[in-house]
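Quick one, T. Sequence first:
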Amino acid sequence: MMRTSDFDYDLPPDRIAQTPVEPRDASRLMVVHRATGQIEHRIFREIGQYLHPGDLLVLNQTRVIPARLFGRKIPTGGRVELLLLSRRDAHTWEALVRGKGLRPGVELQLQAAREPSRTPPHLRAKIVAETGLSGRLIRFEQPVDPLLDELGTIPLPPYIHQPLADPERYQTVYGRVKGSVAASTAGLHFTMELLDRLQGMGVEIAFLTLHIGLDTFQPVKEEQIEQHQIHTEWYELTEATAERVNRARLDGRRVIAVGTTVVRALESAAKVRGAESHGVEGQTVSAYAGPTDLFIYPGYQFRVVDAMITNFHLPRSTLLMLVSAFASRELIFRAYQEAIRLGYRFFSFGDAMLLL
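Structure tokens:
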């Protein structure tokens, strides 16, 4: 069994990026060659030098929703903060809550984020159940999705302490399916011009959707990582994208995942019922829309992904475990130590890594 402490490391606080680099593709890029252990240092806009005509670049088209809501308890007026995580049905969401006495049965009145004194009487909710730690099921009197732009704010990760001047910088330029509570940060480095340039050199681009949820914010607390219960996330791989992935695999072309979320979705889709029917067992994917609880850590055998673009991840996180499974823990930690020494920027607004 592997220990969570094996995935811990010390990061100087000044290495945590507080603001994004401008322009997007001016971030640094560490290129890690898994076969040889060689490490190169480039700028992200130079990534095309490592891609080949025929490569399939798969991106997560999810878009971050204004999932942080504010309100007051009825009738006491006590302040409440909600972070929506996942929608259970049209009226019910799982959320993290901040405030006192937030037990099942408590009623809430939400406030418009940009006009805190205005409390429209129809925007009410009720806590219906606890889901562990600070999690709650919240039932809204009407579907809250259409009201989020008025009610909510974009939830930046807790390690970012500076306000974001432009909320679009926490969205990818290609994100169009609303549903995440955090950005697919590997995709933040791309501009439309860079994507056009890659397509012009023969790189194929495809999209899937995975809505990012709770585990982005939660370190693994169990000492044995196999005992960690990973949070379920919803993803969709369409027939068209599944066909493009399978064609690339059958042709011997590389499938390159932009972000750990794409890795998780593609590898999940290789395990769903019917994946083997394409004729290349373990190397093809099936179209699917639904939840995944796939937890990837060292020892996992990858079925689909040949290369990965990712950021530098938090200590003790499931994302660090995933990239350690894709390369090796030893190589990833050597790369991280070199990144710290050379002043790379870490986490959501930080620099990028290409694992080949």
